[in-house]
Structure formats: structure tokens, C-alpha cells
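Morning. Coffee machine broken again, so started the prediction first thing and wrote up yesterday's gels while waiting. Chain of 227 residues, entered below exactly as on the submission form.
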Amino acid sequence: MTKPLSGGAALLGCSAFLLVSFPIYPHDPITTKLTWTQEISRIVYRRCASCHKPGGTAMSLMTYEEARPWAKAIRDQVTARRMPPWGPVAGIGDFKGDPSLSGPEIDMFVAWVEGGAPEGDPAYLPHRIPDTQPEVVSVPAHSRPVVVSHGLTLKAAATLMAIRPTASQDGASLEAWAELPGGEIQRLIWLKDFHKDCLRTYVLRTPETLPAGASIHTEGTFTFYLR
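Came back before lunch.
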């Protein structure tokens, strides 16, 4: 059985977003043209508002006054890809509902913080904070669940629609990959740091067609939804 390499990917945790405050003070030199009012607030509203709002599941980051004391901690969390919390390691599988920040968005956060985290002109703030809700993702219809604990060889071609991990110990590493008949390895999902929040169904944006004779291998137990 061939196992893929586990390195070379940014890590995503499933645990809640926990921050330690590292205030940025007014005397920090301003060396960036990026500002809260023009660029950063829009990223926060789009990517973070579903949790980080008044009455949300985490502290509010909806205003400059609320977000500024956490700026360095936010930078550290987004560069480690722990915020927004998700689960699968970036670059292995492409799943619906992924709230992860893009590379340019992370770069803007870093440049803003390291440039002094300026507020900017309040006139440039959006007129209203969008009511951002997580994308609702459901198991594709007409797919059949197949539970795999170690390995499964397909007797006929099948289309992989979604993957769901089974409960495991917190901090465990769960992986699944396919070995194609010619020996090529196709990585399907990697949960580097399992947490109870990872117990969700990850629906592929583009279903993967696996040929007859392909073998699915796992570390941990997964339910694969095949069609």
C-alpha cells in the first residue's frame, strides 16, 4: 500500500478561534497604505462576521475599536490558517463551504498589521455590514454512503461526491487517499488536527471520478458518498 507524503501543506485546525491580545498602540509607525476602513474591514465582514459579531459565538471584530487590540493575534491566526476555523489542510481536496482566506487576503492582513494597523477615513467604510451566513452544504442526492476504515478497492468506476470523518480523538491526524490502477496517488482529504467541529460532511465542489480498480486508503474511519 502506497501512502502519500504528509508535508508541504499549510495546516488548518478545527478548534475554536482562541486569541491572546497583543495591543497595537497609537505610537506604532504607519508604513502601509492599507487601512481598516477601505480593505481590512471588508475582509473581516465577508470572512469573519458570521462568528465575530455582537451576540455571535466569539468576540466582536465589527469595528476598528473592537478589532485593533487583537490585530497581531489576528495576523498570527490567519497566517497559521487557524482563522477562520475549518478543518481540511489547504490544497488537499476542494470542498464547498470553505471559509478560508485566500493568499492575497492573508497578505493584506499581514501588511496592515506590520504597517501599524491604521484606521483610515471612516467615510470609506461600507454603508452597512453584510449579513454573512455560512454556506449551507448538504449531502448530494442519490449518493450511497460507504464506510472505509482501512482500505477499499472499487470493482467498478465510481464518482466521489463527499467525505465525512468518524469521531476520533482530539488532535488525531485523519487522512484519505486513492491509489489509481497505474500507481498514481490522489489525495482526498487530510484533517491534521481533528476536533469535534470536524464532524461534518465535506462536499467536493467538483466530484472526483475514480476508475475501477482504484483503491481508497485511510488513516482513521471515513464515510465516502459515492455515485
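The beta strands are 144-148, 151-153, 158-165, 174-179, 185-191, 202-210, 215-219, 222-226. Going to sketch it on the whiteboard this afternoon.
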